[in-house]
Design goal:
Chain A has a single domain, classed as Dynein light chain 2a, cytoplasmic (Beta-Lactamase). Chain A is an alpha+beta fold. Chain A has a five-stranded antiparallel sheet, covered by helices on one side. The radius of gyration of chain A is 15 Å and the shape is globular. Chain A is 41% helix and 28% strand. Chain A is built from two helices and five strands. Chain B is an alpha+beta fold. Chain B is built from 20 helices and 35 strands. In chain B, helix 14 crosses helix 15 and helix 18 (910-937) crosses helix 20. The longest helix of chain B has 39 residues, at 867-905. The N and C termini of chain B lie far apart (175 Å). Classes of the chains: A alpha+beta, B alpha+beta. Chain A binds chain B through residues 5, 7, 9-14, 19, 23, 27, 50-51, 53, 55, 60, 62, 64, 66-69, 71, 73, 77-79, 86-87, 89-90, and chain B through 235-238, 243, 246-247, 251-252, 255-256, 258-259, 262-263, 266, 270-273, 281, 284-285, 287-288.
Chain lengths: 90, 989
């Protein structure tokens, strides 16, 4: 679906998505990234988050957090659709 | 008058250019600035043109009030000067004179400020923060309930006043009585008007209605632009320069390389859940309800009897035509036929009974039917629901009359009481005590006239067909409720039975028959005693002195019942000698063709006079028109004997009376009674009904017979039919012939490892559909009752197969193992269950003596409209296809026959032909190939060869020797020659 590079403040440096999606994704996912980073740091101060992979019914979000930038990839894997169909039947 | 002394003191307060001044009253009036008149404490400033002052100076000179200030006035450059009235005399004088611009505006500003006086500029501003206080309601806290009304229109206001005339003169009023004057009182009495009458008085209704005019109003504060510090309106974004800068930076490059690496890693494993996925999916599906449509035959119930049916082979299962829960079932010992015949002498006297079952009480049969011998075929009477007909192993036919128990069967009540006869004290097994009733047959056929060996097939004739004792020809059935039976045996005899008492036989009085029967009864009585003991006969019967086993309405038929006709067949293959068909007939099926009657009537006048003689070559392939004429001939001819019977009834009296009327014309005779045929056309009852019989033989062939073309053997009274055609199709005995219930002209035959479909719409002597199967052998077949194109088969291994006619594959559409034991009886039936739903069942009887009842799955009983038509179309197209193929083959045969003739006469050298084939052809081919390739590809033509491995070099050798252009021309010629040669003329040089 798209990908974007954002700085730690949640400001997009480069994006392939439209502006509304970019803003919402960057704002919300940077919060999540911070949360995840702090969680890992709290558990072990020497540890660090390297990758977050979120699987939802409709798509999959891949976040690669780094010191200065975060890379966010939103993709639709092939088996998500069938998975979605299966889960909707229950 | 100037006060010089005070001037310097006040000069500090005075603005520059302002001078105190005293004005005399005269000057004040002259300049219109009178103190406390024109000028007062509220209006202290008056603007005055400078000219007026200068003029005053000129006129008065030193007397002038302005004289003291004259040098200053002279210097003044203003057009207008100000005279300021100072009532408080701050500067000592009453007036002040402004001769400067600054002072003039200073005073004017001071006056404006004094006039405004709104801002208290003197007191410094102090901020008081708002204090919290109680809500001071101004009305907004009140709920306005309902609507409020207000008069918005002005009401019409009228003031009506009597116009009082003005009295000019003074009147004096005095008291006076009516009586004082003569006409003091005048009364206007009411009286009846004579001139007209009120006939009707209308009262007018008047009403006033108030119409409220409602208005709605509200006031709401709207925050149209919610703008404050906390809300951000635009997302922060980098400008293009910033982006470019960041993009070029080393940190971004490092980050991207790291991110790419990790992304690649992630994409190695596309599934985030990995091996956990099945577990997770199972978790999600834990409450899922999966609806699977049943596609298999579902087991419903079974019938099995420990005493009477266990370990015996079920031969027939027939469901009642009217009561869908009643079933008749016959069993025989589960031994092979040869063993069975061998054991006949040593077998127990008690044959296997026929059982009547009720589907609702499947522990025990409802009624047991006594039999003369083991029954192999059963048929319910379609019109008489209490009548059951069976064919026995010994060749007899039996009739049972279930009237006695029919009420029980019909009302779905049980005939026995299992509580009683399962009690341990119970040992008598009598019907009165609740045991399963045993019913004796109503009639058995006379042994002399029955089949000599076991009944192989038993079918009802079509209800339109009726064979009478008098005539050899099938007639239109005039009775609505009677049917005839047809049965066949291994001796290639087909018997026609009517459920009627036959006419007495020649030379034997009916009393003799009775005596004979009585004697037989006596002889067999000892045997019967044994039977009674074993089979728990009702006490009344077993103890009764006079033994009369047959009961029911067919009792008079008992032991005198004989067939109407016995039909034998002539083998069509024997050309010169009439010989009976010796093959064993294993199954029969009869169809009537009333549609052909009309055909015959039309054609009866144009019948060709020379009939085909039986000695002529058998016509296997007949054209439709040909067969039509034959039918018409046979039917028209059949009239003659009947008509003669009617015309000369007395001639046929005496011993001949009940003999079969012998048709005098045979096929050889060309005599034709035109008059009779014409007179008979109007009476359909006397006309021979075109009836055809299809029979399957032991050797797997199908035989077709026209039952209207018969001869009567004088000695035996047997009818002799000529076989129309015989077609060897099956590789085993034809065990089953079943008419399609939806389309009666379609006949299914099965035998050995094959089954076939035959269409009787036209005389096609080969099957329409033919399928061969592998192991195992078919044991029973049945048409699906709902779907016209589905056929059910059972086989030796206990499998039920479903075949689809429409499929061209020789394999079943669906097959299911039922019991693992050989199935012998397969009967589909429809059952109305308690919910009033029609359920489609299939009963399967196997060799263990158990009848399994299976529910047919939905996809095998769903019907669609026009399915029967589709089937008909399919069969018709198939017939056309076969006809075309036959025609094509015949043409081919003819063509080859014709072409072969000249070849034989031609002096044709076989060796030459072969030689050319080998070498010449290859040479020509390769040359041509090379020529073509060179033309298209030039020098590199060898690269484009399709099969480079072929031995070309041998054939190129002689071509290479020649020049290239010459070569090509030669090649062309050669190629042309080759073409011509290919045309077929090379052999005739």
């Amino acid at each position: 679906m798209g990908m974007m590079v954002i700085n730690p403040d949640g400001v997009a440096v480069r994006t392939t998505m439209d502006s509304t999606h970019t803003n919402s994704y960057s704002a919300i996912l940077s919060r999540l990234t911070d949360q995840a980073r702090s969680a890992i740091r709290d558990l072990d101060p020497l540890n660090e988050v390297t990758f977050i992979r979120l699987r939802s019914r409709k798509n999959e979000i891949l976040i690669a957090p780094d010191k200065e930038f975060n890379l966010i990839v939103v993709q639709t894997p092939a088996d998500v659709e069938s998975n979605h169909a299966k889960q909707s039947t229950q | 008058m100037t006060d010089e002394g005070k001037e310097p003191e006040d000069e500090s307060n005075l603005l520059e250019g302002t001078y105190p001044l005293e004005l005399s009253l005269e000057t004040q009036l002259q300049l219109e600035c009178e103190a406390n008149g024109d000028l007062h404490s509220q209006e202290t400033i008056k603007s005055l043109p400078l000219k007026h002052i200068q003029q005053d100076l000129l006129e008065k000179g030193a007397r002038s009030d302005f004289y003291a200030l004259s040098p200053k006035i002279e210097r003044c450059s203003l057009d207008e000067v100000l005279i300021i009235f100072d009532p408080t005399r701050i500067h000592g004088t009453e007036f002040l004179l402004c001769l400067n611009v600054d002072s003039k505006f200073g005073y004017l500003n001071a006056q404006e400020e004094a006039e405004a006086r709104l801002i208290d500029t003197d007191s410094p501003y102090v901020y008081y923060p708002p204090q919290p206080r109680l809500w001071d309601g101004r009305g907004s806290d009140k709920e306005i309930e309902g609507s409020w009304e207000k008069n918005v229109r002005a009401k019409i206001w009228l003031k009506i006043k009597r116009n009082v005339p003005r009295k000019t003169s003074i009147l004096n009023f005095t008291n006076r009585d009516v009586k004082d004057a003569k006409d003091g009182y005048k009364a206007c009495e009411s009286y009846q008007e004579t001139k007209f009458n009120f006939k009707h008085v209308h009262l007018m209704d008047r009403a006033v209605q108030a119409v409220p005019v409602t208005m709605e109003g509200h006031s709401q504060t709207e925050l149209k632009h919610p703008k404050n510090i906390a809300i951000q309106y635009e997302a922060r974004a980098f400008g293009p320069d910033e982006v470019a800068e960041i993009w070029k930076s080393d940190s971004m490059r490092n980050f991207l390389s790291r991110a790419e690496k990790i992304m690649m890693e992630v994409h190695q494993e596309p599934d985030i859940m990995g091996h956990l996925r099945p577990d997770v999916e199972a978790f999600y599906r834990r409450d899922e309800v999966v609806v699977i449509e049943e596609t298999k035959f579902a087991y419903r119930t079974f019938f099995s009897e420990l005493v009477f049916s266990k370990d015996k082979r079920i031969t027939q299962v027939k469901w009642h035509p009217k009561l869908p829960y009643i079933m008749a079932m016959s069993v025989i010992e589960n031994v092979s036929y040869e063993d069975y015949l061998e054991s006949l002498s040593t077998r127990l006297v008690m044959p296997n009974v026929v059982m009547i079952w009720n589907m609702n009480y499947n522990y025990y049969p409802q009624v047991l039917l006594r039999v003369a011998d083991d029954v192999t075929h059963l048929e319910w009477h379609p019109f008489e629901p209490e009548t059951l007909v069976g064919g026995c192993v010994n060749g007899q036919l039996m009739i049972w009359d279930l009237t006695q128990y029919y009420s029980n069967l019909e009302s779905n009540t049980c005939t026995w009481d299992h509580k009683k006869f399962l009690s341990p004290q119970y040992n008598k097994l009598y019907v009165q005590d609740g045991y399963i009733p045993l019913l004796h047959w109503s009639a058995e056929s006379s042994k002399e006239h029955s089949h000599l060996c076991g009944v192989e097939d038993l079918q009802w004739l079509p209800k339109t067909v009726w064979f009478s004792y008098d005539s050899a020809y099938p007639k239109q059935n005039q009775m609505d409720d009677e049917l005839q039976l047809i049965s066949c045996d291994a001796d290639s005899n087909v018997l026609i039975w009517a459920l009627r008492k036959p006419p007495a036989e020649d030379g034997i009085d009916s009393s003799d028959v009775e005596d004979e029967l009585a004697g037989k009864r006596k002889a067999s009585s000892s045997g019967w005693e044994k039977l009674k003991l074993q089979s728990a006969l009702p006490a009344s019967i077993s103890t009764g002195k006079k033994y009369s086993p047959a009961i029911g309405k067919y009792e008079p038929l008992n032991r005198v019942w004989r067939p109407v006709h016995r039909i034998c067949f002539i083998d069509p293959k024997l050309k010169f000698e009439e010989q009976l068909l010796t093959t064993t007939i294993t199954s029969v099926s009869v169809i009537d063709r009333p549609d052909l009657i009309i055909f015959s009537r039309k054609d009866s006048t144009i019948v060709p006079s020379d009939p085909p003689s039986p000695k002529s070559k058998p016509q296997i392939e007949r054209k439709p028109s040909d067969t039509g004429s034959i039918y018409s001939r046979s039917s028209s001819r059949s009239h003659s004997p009947v008509s003669k019977l009617r015309k000369h009834p007395k001639k046929n009296s005496g011993p001949q009376k009940h003999r079969i009327e012998v048709p005098k014309q045979n096929y050889d005779s060309s005599e034709d009674d035109e008059e009779d045929s014409k007179s008979q056309e109007t009476d359909p009852a006397q006309m021979a009904l075109p009836t055809f019989l299809m029979a399957g033989t032991m050797f797997g062939s199908i035989v077709r017979v026209d039952l209207t073309k018969v001869k009567v053997d004088v000695e035996t009274n047997n009818l002799i039919c000529k076989v129309e055609w015989e077609c060897a199709v099956h590789d085993g005995p034809v065990r089953f012939m079943r008419r399609c219930p939806h389309y009666e002209k379609l006949l299914l035959t099965a035998g050995g490892y094959s089954w076939a479909l035959w269409s009787e719409t036209n005389s096609l002597a080969i099957p329409v559909v033919l399928h061969y199967i592998e192991d195992p052998l078919f044991t029973d077949v049945a048409w699906s009752l709902t779907q016209p194109h589905r056929i059910l088969f059972s086989d030796e291994k206990g499998t039920v197969q479903v075949w689809d006619i429409r499929s061209r594959k020789s394999e079943p559409f669906q097959s299911q193992d039922i019991s693992g034991r050989t199935i012998n009886a397969l009967t589909p039936f429809n059952y109305q269950n308690s919910d009033n739903q029609l359920v489609h069942y299939l009963s399967v009887g196997d060799e263990t003596g158990t009848v399994h009842v299976l529910e047919i799955p939905k996809h095998l009983n769903e019907t669609y409209p026009e399915e029967v038509d589709d089937l008909k179309d399919l069969i018709e197209t198939e017939v056309i296809r076969i006809r075309d193929r036959e025609k094509l083959q015949a043409d081919k045969k003819l063509a080859t026959y014709e072409t072969e003739q000249p070849d034989e006469t031609d002096d044709f050298d076989e060796e030459r032909r072969i030689l050319w084939d080998e070498n010449e052809y290859l040479k020509v081919y390769f040359q041509r190939e090379r020529f073509v390739l060179e033309e298209t590809y030039g020098e590199d033509w060898k690269k484009y060869l399709k099969f480079p491995d072929l031995p070309r070099k041998k054939h190129y050798v002689e071509i290479k020797r020649r020049g290239s252009s010459e070569d090509r021309r030669r090649q062309k010629e050669l190629a042309l020659k080759a073409k011509k040669k290919k045309g077929g003329s090379i052999f005739r040089k």
